[in-house]
Design a protein that fits this description.
75% of the residues lie in helices and 1% in strands. With 325 residues, the protein is mainly alpha-helical.
Length: 325
C-alpha cells in the first residue's frame, strides 16, 4: 500500500474541519476556527502519519492523534504571534490583530485542551508513553519560547544557545510527531529513537531555513512578512553570525541599525540584508541548513527499513529542505 501525500492531507483536513470546538461565546471559538482553517503545510500531522506508515501500512488509524499534534502546534502559533506582535500568519491577519490579544490567549488555551482530547484517542497500551512524551515535548516548546523571548533583551546570544533554543521551540515537536507515529505502529525502541532524532535534525534545518526565508524569501510565497526578523532585531542564526563576523565599518553600520528606535522599516531591511550579503551570511546559513539535513539522512541510514519506506522518508526530508515557504 503506497502512501499518497494528497490523500493523507485530504484526510487531515477533513478531520480538522470536522472538529467541534464549541459555540458560545462565539468570540472564544471563532478565532481558533479561523486559525485552523488558514491551512498551512500540515507538516506535523503528516510526520505523525509518516512515522506510523514507516512501520505499518494502515495509517488511517492515527489520523486523530496526528491532528492532535497539529492543534497543539497551532496553539503555540497563536500565542507566539501575540508575543512577537506578528501582523501576518500564512499570509493572513493574525488572530490578535483581527480580534485582540486577550481573545487570542483564551482561544489558544482552548486549542491546548482540544489537543489533549485528541490524544485520548491513543490505544491504551501506548497511551501512557505517548502522553508522557507529549507533556515533555510541550514543556520543552514552552522553554524554547521563553529562551527566545529572553534573547530579545540579551546583548549577546551565542550560536550554541540559539541552536538549543530552536531545538526546543521547533525541532522537538517534529521529533515527537515521528516518534509518536512509530510508537503507535509498534516499532522497536532503536528505530523509534532514530526516527525521533531524524525529525529533530530535520527540524533544526527547517527552522534555520525559516530564518533564511525571512530574509531571502518572497512575501507572496513565504506567507509572512519578509524582513520581520530584521525589523525587530530578532536574534536569528543570520544575525548572530553577522555580529560575530562583522568588523570595521560593517560592524559600525550593523550596530547602528540595531540600536535605532526610529527608522524606515524597508530601508533597514535593505541595508541589513546588504550587510549580510557582504559578510557571506547567505552562504554560511545555507551550509548550516545542509549540515542538519545531512545528520537527518545519517539517522535514516541507520534505521532498519523496507527500501520503499526509506525512499519515502528521504523524499519528504528533501521536500522540507527545498521549501520556499
Amino acid at each position: 500500500m503506497a502512501l499518497y501525500f494528497p490523500t493523507v492531507t485530504t484526510q487531515i483536513e477533513q478531520k480538522i474541519n470536522s472538529l467541534y470546538f464549541g459555540e458560545n461565546p462565539p468570540e472564544l471559538y471563532e478565532p481558533l476556527r479561523y486559525l485552523m482553517q488558514l491551512g498551512g503545510k500540515r507538516i506535523r500531522p503528516l510526520l505523525t502519519i509518516l512515522g506510523y506508515y514507516t512501520f505499518q501500512d494502515d495509517w488511517e488509524r492515527v489520523v486523530t492523534p496526528a491532528v492532535g499534534v497539529e492543534v497543539f502546534h497551532n496553539f503555540t502559533l497563536m500565542h507566539d504571534d501575540i508575543m512577537d506582535n506578528a501582523p501576518l500568519r500564512r499570509g493572513k491577519v493574525t488572530v490578535h490583530e483581527k480580534w485582540d490579544a486577550n481573545t487570542a490567549i483564551l482561544s489558544g488555551d482552548v486549542m491546548l485542551v482540544k489537543a489533549y482530547e485528541l490524544f485520548a484517542d491513543v490505544e491504551s497500551q501506548y497511551f501512557k508513553k505517548v502522553f508522557t512524551l507529549f507533556n515533555q515535548c510541550a514543556t520543552e516548546v514552552c522553554e524554547g519560547q521563553q529562551k527566545d523571548m529572553n534573547f530579545e533583551t540579551q546583548e549577546e546570544v551565542s550560536e550554541a544557545d540559539y541552536l538549543d533554543m530552536i531545538r526546543q521551540k521547533t525541532s522537538v515537536l517534529l521529533g515527537f510527531a515521528l516518534q509518536t507515529g512509530a510508537i503507535l505502529a509498534g516499532a522497536d525502541l532503536e528505530n523509534e529513537i532514530l526516527i525521533r532524532d531524524f525529525g529533530i535534525a530535520m527540524g533544526l534545518g527547517f527552522q534555520i531555513k525559516d530564518d533564511f526565508l525571512d530574509v531571502y524569501g518572497e512575501t507572496e510565497t513565504f506567507g509572512k512578512q519578509v524582513g520581520g526578523d530584521i525589523i525587530s532585531n530578532k536574534k536569528t542564526f543570520l544575525l548572530i553570525n553577522a555580529q560575530k563576523r562583522a568588523e570595521g565599518n560593517l560592524k559600525i553600520e550593523l550596530e547602528k541599525w540595531l540600536s535605532l528606535t526610529t527608522f524606515n522599516p524597508s530601508e533597514k531591511v535593505e541595508i541589513v540584508t546588504q550587510i549580510y550579503n557582504q559578510l557571506g551570511i547567505k552562504e554560511v546559513t545555507e551550509q548550516k541548513i545542509q549540515s542538519y539535513f545531512d545528520k537527518a539522512f545519517t539517522c535514516l541510514e541507520k534505521m532498519t527499513l523496507a527500501p520503499e519506506k526509506r525512499i519515502l522518508l528521504t523524499e519528504f526530508a528533501q521536500m522540507i529542505m527545498q521549501r520556499q515557504k
